[in-house]
Amino acid sequence: MNAALAEAQARQAVTVAAWLRYPTATDAALVAMAGPGGSARLDWLLGGDPREVAESDYAWRTWVDEVVASWAASLLTSPALANAAVAALAGCEHAAASAVDFRRLTTPDEYDRRATPLLRHPDLMAPVIDLHRRQLLERLHSDHPVGAV
User: Fold this and answer.
1) Whole-prediction pTM value?
2) 10-56, pLDDT tens digit by residue?
């Protein structure tokens, strides 16, 4: 059960981060065409060697978006940021298209917190958070709603 709860929280954080980063269908389509950049820098930062990636892992690693990963880590470690991010999505195309509840991200219960002590640990996540935290804060404190032209 802990693995499922941890995955649910991580998915919610990544979804919110991706919607903030790519708030319109056009934004999402463009990144799908161009590709988000890959995991090489994150691998290096966290002590991995991107040259030693198993062939079976190579394809999915090319679709890692460093900014989305950084923003998701920020949201997991800060309930205030998570709540601000979800509130900022109120007017974006993605949120309007479906009713989504991000409760496990914004108001985790005791079981959620027990399932993710490492994912929610600010010191452990700091190297990833620090990569793009400034841009996340700028996005959340912008005068323009997410997805506005």
Assistant:
1) 0.88
2) 999 999 999 999 998 898 888 888 777 788 878 877 787 767 777 77
Q: Where are the alpha helices (DSSP H) in 78-121?
A: 79-88, 93-97, 103-106, 110-115
Q: Which contacts of 23-29 are long-range, i.e. CB under 8 A and separated by 24 or more positions?
A: 23/89, 23/92, 23/93, 23/94, 23/146, 23/147, 24/92, 24/93, 24/147, 25/93, 28/94
* Integer CA distances (angstroms), 126 to 40, 69, 73, 74, 118, in order: 18, 12, 8, 8, 11
Q: Are 43 and 49 contacting, i.e. CB atoms less than 8 angstroms apart?
A: yes
Q: What is the pLDDT of residues 44-92, one digit of tens each?
A: 777 877 677 777 777 777 778 999 999 999 999 999 999 999 999 987 8
Catalogue the long-range contacts made by 20-23 (C-beta closer than 8 Å, 24 or more residues apart): 20/71, 20/85, 20/88, 20/89, 20/136, 20/139, 20/140, 20/146, 21/65, 21/67, 21/68, 21/71, 21/139, 23/89, 23/92, 23/93, 23/94, 23/146, 23/147
